[in-house]
Automatic annotation (TrEMBL), chains A, B:
Cited PANTHER family: KTR SYSTEM POTASSIUM UPTAKE PROTEIN C (PTHR43833:SF7), POTASSIUM CHANNEL PROTEIN 2-RELATED-RELATED (PTHR43833)
Species whose genome carries this gene: Candidatus Abyssobacteria bacterium SURF_17
Source organism, top-level taxon: Bacteria
Record-linked InterPro entries: NAD(P)-bd_dom_sf (IPR036291), RCK_C (IPR006037), RCK_C_sf (IPR036721), RCK_N (IPR003148), Trk_Ktr_HKT_K-transport (IPR050721)
Domain RCK N-terminal as annotated: residue spans: 1-118
UniProt name for this protein: TrkA family potassium uptake protein
Pfam families per record: TrkA_C (PF02080), TrkA_N (PF02254)
Amino acid sequence: MKRFAVLGLGNFGSHLARSLAQKGAEVLAVDNDEQAVLNIKDSVTQAVVANALDKKALLALDIDKFDCVTVSLGEKVDASILIAMFLKKVGVEEILVKAISEDHAEALQNVGATLVVFPERDMAHKIADSLLTPNLIDFIPVTEGQSIVEMKPPSECFGKTLAELMLRNRFGLQVLAVRTEEPSWDTISRRMKSGALIVPDGNFRIEENHVLIIMGDNKNIEKFRKLT
Amino acid sequence: MKRFAVLGLGNFGSHLARSLAQKGAEVLAVDNDEQAVLNIKDSVTQAVVANALDKKALLALDIDKFDCVTVSLGEKVDASILIAMFLKKVGVEEILVKAISEDHAEALQNVGATLVVFPERDMAHKIADSLLTPNLIDFIPVTEGQSIVEMKPPSECFGKTLAELMLRNRFGLQVLAVRTEEPSWDTISRRMKSGALIVPDGNFRIEENHVLIIMGDNKNIEKFRKLT
Ligand SMILES: Nc1ncnc2c1ncn2[C@@H]1O[C@H](COP(=O)(O)OP(=O)(O)OP(=O)(O)O)[C@@H](O)[C@H]1O
Ligand SMILES: Nc1ncnc2c1ncn2[C@@H]1O[C@H](COP(=O)(O)OP(=O)(O)OP(=O)(O)O)[C@@H](O)[C@H]1O
């Protein structure tokens, strides 16, 4: 099992630490604010009050033996860069750092952070994509120019079989799967319950309430969508 | 084309406004900080200095005629809740609000926000999922208990064809597609270039550098993964 250390327990760090621990991972949580450490200690393997800039303290916690160390210190740009460099030096393989600006992100990549997260920017981009595709419920980029998308079928497809529609010949699109029941958000398990999903054959008949999971060229997907 | 208004131009709001405008949407950007408005005016359709709590000012901008209004005012919890209520009252269909805590998120949902975003929490959960699946490069939840995942093939698959491996019979898994070239991050277009993707038939031979896109029951995926 992978061993994680999370340095800095603001919103991002604490949610990450809890989420990893909840899924059964071993998590060391570190913050120099005692209250932050107290708030999380029952949800993680080990919670320690320490200054993440204190190399001796980190080595005393065997930081170099962790598979993945996350640095999420908020506004402390210099601190996070220095700590990322130190972690790289002592051989930590996965160094995840939360950035607070583009320049910060670039500097972190330069000093060896393996994954730089800028939640406000990253979520803004994902959301812009989904807001702009009103009947593409979920947009998953696959290959430059190609995508796997979910979409409601254009009305001219209702009641027709896949064999009749000949989407591959007419549009170069492949229907990978069809959701025959509406997705819904389960607030308890915090998962998307996507209803029923089936892999259709040529005789499968498309209905109005179905959601198609289609793969193909972006241009072809757009052409198909314009039939709506 | 959908018309968007973004109230509050911090990191999230400004990235969202730019991202939407870049993709061709009509975007009105609003902030009461003149510098924030000046910084963005060349990247959006219209940028206005105004107090988002000023209902007259919003109505003068025809806020009720926008398809989607985003509220991202940072620490101003009360303000965002009041504005969300007002937007609902004047009939805006999509009200997206950035939350800064769980309680804030809940309150916003109660007053009618249609999409509540809490970037630090939402990204932390997504990242926790991907950190915990070391050879599942991308984990997309599909149906309760089922998933579409990307994974490196277990070594016993190398050099064998899909027909020989009989994954559907032995594991109940369907190989939807195979990446035959490594994904890489294009810093300019900011897209994942996923290399080449093909939809395999039974004669397709799996190689060590391939990435399989597999669909099936979570338990079966885990069984298959344990072969590694
Ligand atoms: N040198 C340090 N050593 C250990 N912890 C630190 C150090 N400097 C800051 N911290 C902690 O890092 C955390 C940073 O949280 P803060 O909310 O400021 O930022 P963040 O994590 O970027 O924000 P968010 O809450 O949006 O995730 C705080 O809990 C703070 O106590
Ligand atoms: N009443 C208001 N009317 C218009 N703009 C406001 C109002 N109150 C705050 N703002 C603006 O909202 C923006 C909030 O940005 P801030 O960085 O504080 O938070 P945020 O958007 O949550 O954070 P992030 O930068 O992490 O996205 C600021 O640019 C601020 O000027």
